[in-house]
Fold this sequence. Notes:
With 630 residues, the protein is an alpha+beta fold.
Amino acid sequence: MNIRRKTWMMLVAVVISSCHTETFDIASPDGDLKVTVELAEENAYGEILFSVDYEGKRILSQSKLGLETDAQKLAGNLKLKSVSAVKHVTDDYRMITGKRSHCVNEATERTYSFENEVEQPLEVTFRVYNDGIAFKYGINTVADEENVVHEHTTYAVPKGTRRWVQEYDPGYEKFFPLSTDGKLTNRPEVDLWGYPALVEPQDSVFMLITEANIRRGHCGSLLYNGDQLDSYQVRLADKQPVGNGAWESPWRLLIVGNLSDVVESTLVTDVSDPSKVEDTEWITPGMVSWIYWAYNHGSKDYQRVKEYIDLAVRMKWPYDLIDWEWDEMGNGGNLQDAVKYALEQGVKPLLWYNSSTSWLGPGPLYRLNKKEDREKEYKWLSDMGVAGIKVDFFTGDSVATMNYYMDLLEDAVKYKLMLNFHGATIPRGWQRTYPHMMSVEGVYGAEWYNNNPILTNRAAEHNATLPFTRNVVGPMDYTPGTFSNSQHPHITSYAHELALPVIFESALQHMPDRPSVYYGLPEPVKRLLSELPVAWDDTKLLAGYPGEEVILARRKGNVWYIGGINGTNETKTLHISLDKIAVNGKKISIFKDGIDNKHFSIEENIPLANVKSDLTIECLPRGGFVAVIK
């Protein structure tokens, strides 16, 4: 044995021998959150586990780590080689869209280096923030064409733990039902689950499981508990080619703390790649008039398209979405006429496209799939004056689909087109990397009033769950503000519906009801909808619990907008503490439930000096309110 190798082995031995269980720990900057990496017996190859403590109590126990490629097994057969020194990481950046314009977060980072019996290495890098944990894998390839085929990451969620998890669906359009046993009550055979998954491991302590920073060549993942109901294993949606040399996985994320820590967290964007767009002046969030919902149809009728452009004008909304079937438009005009009319009225048009990868139903089709066709279409749109596109009907979380999203985003920069994805995966941090990605559907939203009657009775509870689950991870194009009925009725109150554009964050907020409905709203309500921001400087959760109620405050400049909803079928008093927001010397206007669920009670410009620090709002069943403080 040469001297250099002997010295290196002695150094590793010193590192490992000094690493009793506590030395494998890594803690958050404030010390409240701690990860412990647990190893097999000394000098033995075996399982690598990790556990999480929050404020001194164990909230995640002995959860598995590991990867497997078609050329290497790096799970269940590992031993520790070394542990890096603790590194301090700071995230400090600006966002055009989202829940906060200035995002700052700090973490401690540590890399654990393992090897299997044939000395193939696996690195696991943990970052522990005050509001959560991120970890990722790194490997070196050993074959020319190697693929990650299996991930062994497993989150242990014991029976009896409350959880809100949606059945996996490629479009992420399912409910988040409360469960304590890892099963759906009426469909116990379901064992695949989508992100994000919310868990309450202890009373008032929550953990949201998701992933972030999908790069080109990555697939998405999901959760599987078919082998053990209390163990959610990360399952890849596709095999991942790893190329030659070093490869890194996306970040696996656990957002941890009380509900306000979870809702207010920007961890998904904190760990994602910085913006790839230098000139961003053309990226402008705003309200959008939207034609499809009210008539369950697209944009064939030029005269009806004009009505929605006129709606945007009267409501002072900057955008109008011309939806599917615009390539078949008639009745007095075509697409070019509609775009010209919108621009003459000072409204920026947006256009719908079929991704042509999944449901090959309405058109136009096959205009974006190939780069040369996409560039031609983007140039045509830009020259015509179109501000952005909505691309619909994607086909899952495969590598090819993830690459296609990035193709669409990257080529759009040259032509200054904003994008909105529908029938699509959930946000995984691209809202930072590609700031012109304005919104993503990925939610069981108001559009489902057109499809079947299920949402009618479940909407209030569902709406009171989404701020704690789906909308935490990024923009959500739910299409709120449906005061009238489409194909199936809604039984939430008008004040509940008014609160949704405040509670639900989306940089393009599509307003879907009929023009006559908006024109018929009380003047103060119309004024509120005309002035309502869609991207925020700050976000604070004031109160709430999944499925029961939510009170969320969002700030734009010096104005606070507070939205609250009752998710239950009983009357409820909502208590609003203003301690978390700076409101001294201001006035408040309140829009709440009136004599019934189709009327408002409105009080404007009340001096806050006349209001107690804790407001109380009486809500109807499935009711709500909006308060504006300025």
